[in-house]
Amino acid sequence: MDKFLLSFIPIFVAMDAIGILPMFIGFTEHLKSKEKQKIVLQSIITAFLIGVVFLFLGKWIFKILGVLVADFKIAGGAVLLAISLRDILQYEKSVKLPSETMGAVPIGTPLVVGPAVLTTIVILLDSYGPAITVLSFIINLVIVWITFSYATMISAFLGKAGSKAFSKIASLLLAAIAVMMIRKGVIDTISIFITTAKV
Fold this sequence. Notes:
Elements: H1 2-15, H2 17-28, H3 33-65, H4 69-89, H5 99-112, H6 115-128, H7 130-149, H8 151-198
């Protein structure tokens, strides 16, 4: 249970379902109910496929490029830190997009599954294994699905200020996780260096 929570929480924070809710509402506010449902489904399928493919091929890509997991922890942590700081310091306004592709881009990716989530799941895969990581990823996608499906109701309950505040808190937590990833990456790199030096 502890391992599941340690895997689930970083993905939950990285996805930030409530934080991206105002953008989702802004993108879909001019659409009918059936069109919104279609976009929700399209976004979840897109996010799932991208996440799973990257989850299982990520390490293979690293091997080809000669990149260590420790390297990715440091680089990924730096990317997450930059993303979280950007989200903390500014609030993006929504724009109208074509409804035919809206679910895939930009909602499915990079909003639901972007650099933050991809970085997180690859690192979690190394720490907790595929079963727990995939389960955590899927449950988080279900949460996003429910959040998007009840977007109007949730937005009315939280209000604009509430949604914005939740987003800032989630971004702050993401920044803390980013620092943790960088710290672990540095420790792993030092360990590898010491082990290699002894040999």
